[in-house]
Amino acid sequence: MLNIKIVCVGKIKEKSLESLINEYLKRLTKYCKIEIITVDDEKVPTSLSTLEENRIKEVEGKKIMQKLEKYENASIYFLDLKGKEYTSYEFAEEIQNVATYLSSTIVFVIGGTLGFSDEILKIPSKKICFSKMTFPHQLIRLFLLEQIFRAFKIQNNETYHH
Q1: Which parts of the chain fold into alpha helices (H)?
Q2: Distance CA 44, CA 21 (A)
Q3: Which domain holds residue 67?
Q4: CA 88 to each of CA 11, 22, 54, 91: distance values in angstroms, whole numbers, following the listed order
Q5: Which candidate, 154, 120, 149, places its Cα nearest to that of 7?
Q6: Number of domains into which the chain is organized
Q7: For residue 144, what is the domain's CATH number?
Q8: Closest CA to 106 of 156, 71, 82
Q9: Most buried one in 13, 23, 92, 126, CB count within 10 A?
Q10: Residue bearing the bigger pLDDT, 134 or 53
Q11: What is the pLDDT of residues 43-74, one digit of tens each?
Q12: How far is the CA of 64 from the CAs of 48, 83, 86, in angstroms?
C-alpha cells in the first residue's frame, strides 16, 4: 500500500476546516496509508523586511528538512507557485507512476505563509502548483487531500461526485 506523508508548516486553527481535512483523511485510508506531519510556523510581523522574511523561511525550512530526513527514498513534491500545474487526471497518473516505478512513499510539502527558502528548494523534488492564485497554506492542505482522494477514485475507475 502506498504511503503518503504531508509535511505542513503551521497548525489548522479553524475547526470547520479541520473537520473537512479529517473527513478526507478517513476516506483515503481505503487507498493508502496517509499522515499529516506538522511543523510549527514562525510568527510573521505585520511589517516585514526582506532580511526578516528570509530568516523566517530559513527557520521553517530547517524544521521541514528535519522531517524529510526520515524519507530519503521517497518521492518528494513541494507545493510551490513555480511548480507544474496538473489536471486531476494527470495528477492521478503521476501518483500511479510514482507508486509503480519509483517509490512506495510520496511526501508532499506545504510551506508556511511566506513559502520556501531557497535552500530547501534545492532538495531533489518535483514542484506542483495548484493555481497561480494565492491561497492560505492551511486551505491548500484541504485542496491537496481532495485531489489525492480524487486521484485514487480516477485510478480505480470509481465515480466521484463533487
Answers
A1: 15-28, 50-68, 88-97, 137-155
A2: 25
A3: 3-155
A4: 26, 21, 33, 5
A5: 120
A6: 1
A7: 3.40.1280.10
A8: 71
A9: 92
A10: 53
A11: 988 888 999 999 999 999 999 999 999 998 89
A12: 22, 18, 24
Answer yes or no: is 33 within a domain.
yes
Whether 85 is covered by a domain: the verdict is: yes
> Is residue 60 a part of any domain in this protein?
yes
Q: What is the pTM of this model?
A: 0.94
Task: Centre a 10 Å sphere on the Cβ of residue 2 and count the other Cβ atoms it contains.
Answer: 18
Place of cell 492521478: 92
Taking residue 44's Cβ as centre, other Cβ atoms within 10 Å add up to: 12
Q: Are 144 and 6 in contact (CB under 8 A)?
A: yes
**Predicted confidence (pLDDT) at residue 138 exceeds the cutoff of 90:** no
Contacts within 8 Å (CB) and 24+ apart, 119-124: 119/58, 119/61, 120/57, 120/61, 120/64, 120/65, 120/78, 121/78, 121/80, 123/65, 123/68, 123/76, 123/78, 124/76
Cell of 118: 531557497
Domain membership flag for residue 8? yes
CA 22 to chain centre: 15
Nearest residue to 39 (alpha-carbon basis) of 16, 61, 13: 61
